[in-house]
Amino acid sequence: MRTSNRESQAPESTLDQPRAESGSILQRRAAPGASRLFEVPRSTSNLVPPCADRLRAYMDPIFDPEEGEASIVALMEHRFAAFHDVPHCVAYANGFWSLVSAIRALALPGCDEIVMPSLTYRRLADVAAWAGLRPRFCEVDGDSLTASVATMEPCISPRTALILPAHPIVGVLDAAGLTAMARHHRVPILFDAVESVYEVLPEGRIGRFGDAEVFSLHASKLLNGFEGGYVTTQDTQLAARLRAARDHGRGPGGLNARLSGLHAAAALAALDEVEAQVEHNRAIYLAYRRHFAGITGLAVRTFDETTRSSFKNILVEIDPDFWPLTRDDTVRALNAEGALARAYYAPPLHRKPMAYPHVPADLPLTDALAARFLLMPCGHFVSETDVAVIAGLMRRFARGRAA
Ligand SMILES: Cc1ncc(COP(=O)(O)O)c(C=O)c1O
Hints:
4-stranded mixed β-sheet, 4-stranded antiparallel β-sheet, 12 helices, binds pyridoxal-5'-phosphate, Aspartate Aminotransferase, domain 1, alpha/beta, Aspartate Aminotransferase, domain 2, globular
C-alpha cells in the first residue's frame, strides 16, 4: 500500500499538532523520506540517555588502579540484587549469554529438550541451540499471551532438561504457579524476565522465582546499560558456577561473557533514574488509551494498574473484522511515516527456519495471535503529542485515506 502524499493530507486536528523534533544528537539521523510525519523516527525502544554527571561518577573507579572496573561491576551486581530482592546477581555481557550460560548450568544431564513458548523473543530458540538443547514449543494462554501451567505442562516429558517461560511484554506470567509445576515434575526452571524487570507479583519481586531469572540491559530495555545482562538467583552454588562460567572458562563450559565496567556504570545510572522512566511511560500509556479509545478495530492492551508495572511497552490488538488493513500493512504504513511500530513476535518461533534440531509444533492459537498485534512506538523519546499524531494517522487509515 502507499501512504497519501503530503499535500493531500487532511488537516485533521490531531495531525495539526507540532512535530516533535526533540532528541539528542545521538538520536537524530538523516531522514531519507524527509516529508514523512516523524522526521525523527519514533521507535519501540527505550533509548534513555543516562545523566552524564551520574554516569561519569559511576565510571570514576575505572581509572583508579586500586579499584578498577571490577569494582563497578561488583557494585552493579550488589545494587541489582537489592533491586530484585534476591541474594545473587551475576552480570553478563548481554541477556543472550546470560540465558545460554544459565541454561547450561541448570539443564538436567542426559535430557535434550527445553520447553519454551513460540510467541516470544525472536532469538530464544537460538539460545537453546547454543546451549545444546532442542526447543519444544508450547502454546500460550490467550489472555496473558504467554506460557502458563496449562500450556507448558503437556510438553514436559522424561526428555525435558529445562523449562524456560518468558514474560510477556505487557503484564507478567504466573511465575509462582510455573515454579510449583516445575518443582512437582522435578525439572529445573529458568525465567526469561527481560520484559518484566520492574514488575512485582503478589508472591514477590520478579527476580526471585524459579531456579534463576535472566534480564537484559540492552539500550532498548527499561534499564539501559547500552549492552549487558544479568542472572538473579537465590542459589549460592549456582551463582558461583555462573560467575566462573562467564569468566574466561573458569569452570565447566566457560566463555568470556563479562560485563564491562562502562556498561555496569550506565546500568547503575539507569537504575537511579528508573522511577522517572516509569512515570513517563505511564503518561504515554494513558495517552495511547485516551487517543485510541473509539478507533474501531484497535484495542490498546491494558496493564494491571493495581500492581507495580513499568508501562513501557504499548501493544495494540487489531480486530480483523473491523480494522481495514492487515497487521503487516498497518506496520508498513506506520513505518512509512516514521512511526516504527513492529509486528509483535511475528513470525512465531516454530514458524521460523531453524538450522538446528527442534521439535516440530502445531500451535494454532500462537499462529492466530501472531497476526493480531502491533508493538507501538514508546519509551523515552516518545511524547504525548506523538501519540496524538499516531492516533490521527490510525484514524485516517481506518477511513481508508491512506490506501
Ligand atoms: C525477551 C528477551 N529475552 C532475551 C533478550 C536478549 O537480550 P540481549 O539483547 O541483551 O542479548 C531480549 C532482547 O531483546 C529479549 O527481548
